[in-house]
Design goal:
Bound molecules: zinc ion
Largest sheet: 2 strands, antiparallel
Radius of gyration: 16 Å
Distance between the termini: 14 Å
Number of helices: 2
Order of helices and strands: HHEE
Shape: elongated
Helix content: 40-55%
Number of domains: 1
Structural class: mainly alpha
Strand content: under 5%
């Protein structure tokens, strides 16, 4: 499996997590009224899940697939490494 494929699956799980989080916040809102605690729980859970993103790096130069120019975080991984132009859809997964 390529590093891009692995990163893409992680991105899909994150999108699903965000969707579940939004539904959870709306549900809590309807049941017990506005709750900033529910909001905090979802943000914390998504933050913890998102740490996995740091494991998806270019096997050639170690640049992270989810970062653009090292600053902006992308919701979707890069197909081509922004630094060394390695085709990440062809590079095999060598992560942890
Ligand atoms: Zn690279």
């Amino acid at each position: 499996m390529s590093v891009y494929e692995r990163a893409r699956r992680h991105a899909l799980k994150m999108l699903l997590g965000v969707a579940i989080g939004v539904v959870f916040i709306i549900a809590v809102d309807l049941w017990i009224g506005h709750s900033s605690i529910a909001f905090a729980i979802v943000i914390f859970a998504l933050f913890m899940a998102n740490i996995g993103i740091l494991g998806f790096n270019c096997p050639n130069c170690r640049k992270n697939l989810f970062f653009y120019r090292g600053v902006l975080m992308l919701p979707w991984p890069n197909k081509i490494c922004g630094r060394c132009k390695t085709d990440l859809t062809k590079e095999p997964w060598k992560g942890k």
